[in-house]
Design goal:
The protein is mainly beta. It has one domain: Immunoglobulin-like (Sandwich), CATH 2.60.40. Helices cover 14% and strands 42% of the residues. Strands 4, 5, 6, 8 and 11 form a five-stranded mixed β-sheet that branches. Strand 2 and strand 3 (65-72) form a beta hairpin. The longest helix is centred in the first third of the chain and has 21 residues, at 2-22. The relative contact order is 0.21.
Length: 149
């Protein structure tokens, strides 16, 4: 009985701390909220070169999936992520798999690991340093592809 009481005394505070700390930050790597609205949008104003993004997903030699991100008029700048003012030709990207935000991207390659069986929709958005999704003429600057496994 003493072992059970000790376990309960340890386990309940552990659960409370776990749920408290895992819910403190808005950027959950495997967030169930696929919405881009959490950071808002920013339209690329006239006078700026409009960025673009193209993605390719291929299986590598280790049987995992490799994402390649190619951009034009856009530079990855991880040291400025979180800046208060929007940027239009630099920032980072957001990676979504099947509508679920997976991670931020700060460069041209990312190992997706093993994907679930069936069709997987891979989406990459270009984001300003202030995390807003970049837009042009009301359209998100993004690319997506479907990978079938």
């Amino acid at each position: 009985m003493n072992k059970f009481k000790s376990f309960i005394i340890f386990f309940i505070p552990f659960l409370l701390f776990f749920f408290y700390f895992t819910n403190q930050h808005g950027h959950k790597p495997f967030s169930a909220n696929p919405s881009h609205a959490e950071h808002g949008y920013v339209e690329v104003p006239d006078g700026y070169d409009v960025p673009s993004v193209k993605i390719a997903v291929t299986m590598d030699q280790s049987n995992t999936w490799l994402l390649e991100v190619q951009t034009k008029n856009f530079t990855f700048n991880p040291k400025k992520v979180g800046a208060g003012l929007p940027s239009y030709n630099e920032g980072h990207a957001h990676l979504y798999i099947n509508g679920e935000k997976i991670n931020r991207l700060y460069g041209n390659y990312y190992n997706l690991g093993k994907l679930k069986q069936g069709k997987n929709t891979i989406t990459v958005t270009l984001n300003s340093n202030n995390h807003s999704v970049l837009m042009n003429n009301g359209n998100k600057i993004e690319d997506r592809t479907v990978v079938s496994k």
